[in-house]
Design the sequence.
């Protein structure tokens, strides 16, 4: 479930309520269209329902949401994750936020937030603890009939999103109280050996949704990570709190097109596996095709959807696209047809390369024997738009023999 965030419009000060996934929004009062960007993870805090006379201390929690993929010897399993974890080494404080982030309105943490906050541990420091807890829960739920636990060879995540949520507390007498429930914490925890600071600027920005080159309105969905300008035929993504122009490519079609779906085309080295050209792919995936000499010059790319949806189907679509290796060319215009929103950044897509290798390898034992030595090294990432035709239930790409359910796409917007 997504968080709900409330803020004042930076242009007119009117109240605005947003889903946490929203990046592009229009103020209902002044009608200005703004694009939300940040440097690093988004940061929120939970304001108490009533004003308190006591000084608040904001305690950070890392929130982690996505779908875990567990690669096992004979199969790939998936599980939805939505958890939070205390981001400071303090005893006596709740280990997670529970359900309150789903039932309360949050606000962005800004330098103007009039409270002190504890300095959180980095996600890199806290993630091994989160992962250990997740793996423990996974193992409890996948016991074999004989009672033994099936080992996970490799674990990765689809649609991974993380943010910092600060929970308010206050000191009254000798007790620390939860500022939401007003109930003192048991055991008299102490705020010791943790840095306390005023909220700092972490790069939250609200940018006008107009093309930096020509001043035209940018086109995109509310949750899109990439916006398009149909006037000067450019594409823009957020980078370090600003809009950055990016190149994109297209797969051409002779038939009708109802929708373009975005894919990340990734060039990567995966030693000790040799996957430099199409002939290498034929051998690795044991494809029923007779190699041609010219295929030695046909470069190999990993193709991964640039949008979130059901994980097993995600890997299947990535496998179909990667095995078929569509031909793409630089785009000269933004297509007039609809473009499906990009919700998966390229950095997260590249983390799926090892899982995709497990799906492509035939036999699977090829990867089981070598996966510990595989260290993917990304060399280049391109955004490619692939045209799809629409029928009552699916979006279909006939040349690739690929179909994607409309229901799965709708479900993916909530991951």
Sequence:
């Amino acid at each position: 479930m997504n968080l709900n965030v409330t803020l004042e419009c930076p242009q007119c000060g009117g109240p605005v309520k947003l889903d946490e996934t929203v990046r592009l929004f229009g103020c209902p009062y002044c009608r200005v269209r703004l694009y939300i960007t940040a440097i690093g993870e988004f940061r929120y805090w939970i304001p108490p329902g009533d004003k308190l006379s006591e000084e608040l201390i904001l305690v950070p929690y890392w929130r982690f949401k996505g779908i875990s993929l567990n690669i096992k010897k004979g199969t790939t399993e998936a599980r939805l994750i939505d958890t939070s974890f205390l981001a400071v080494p303090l005893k006596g404080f709740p280990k997670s936020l529970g359900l309150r982030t789903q039932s309360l309105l949050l606000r962005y943490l800004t330098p103007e937030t009039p409270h002190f906050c504890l300095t959180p541990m980095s996600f890199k420091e806290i993630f091994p603890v989160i992962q250990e807890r997740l793996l423990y829960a996974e193992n409890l739920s996948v016991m074999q009939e004989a009672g033994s636990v099936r080992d996970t060879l490799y674990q990765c995540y689809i649609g991974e999103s993380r943010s910092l949520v600060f929970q308010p507390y206050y000191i009254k007498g000798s007790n620390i109280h939860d500022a939401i429930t007003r109930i003192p914490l048991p055991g008299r925890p102490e705020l010791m050996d943790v840095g306390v600071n005023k909220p700092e600027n972490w790069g939250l920005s609200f940018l006008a949704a107009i093309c930096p080159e020509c001043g035209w309105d940018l086109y995109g969905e509310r949750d899109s990570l990439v916006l398009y300008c149909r006037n000067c035929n450019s594409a823009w993504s957020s980078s370090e709190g600003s809009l950055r122009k990016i190149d994109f490519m297209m797969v051409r079609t002779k038939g009708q097109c109802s929708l373009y779906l975005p894919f990340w085309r990734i060039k990567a080295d995966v030693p000790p596996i040799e996957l430099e050209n199409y002939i290498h792919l034929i051998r690795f995936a044991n494809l029923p095709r007779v190699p041609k000499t010219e295929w030695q010059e046909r470069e190999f790319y990993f193709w991964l959807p640039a949008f979130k949806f059901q994980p097993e189907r995600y890997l299947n679509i990535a496998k179909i696209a990667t095995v078929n290796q569509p031909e793409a060319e630089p785009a000269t215009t933004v297509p007039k047809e609809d473009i499906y929103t990009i919700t998966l950044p390229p950095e997260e897509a590249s983390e799926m390369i090892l899982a995709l290798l497990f799906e492509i390898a035939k036999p699977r034992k090829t990867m089981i024997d070598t996966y510990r030595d595989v260290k993917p090294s990304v060399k280049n990432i391109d955004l490619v738009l692939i045209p799809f035709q629409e029928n009552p239930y699916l979006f279909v790409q006939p040349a690739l023999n690929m179909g994607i359910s409309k229901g799965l796409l709708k479900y993916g917007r909530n991951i």
Observations:
- The first helix runs from residue 100 to 103.
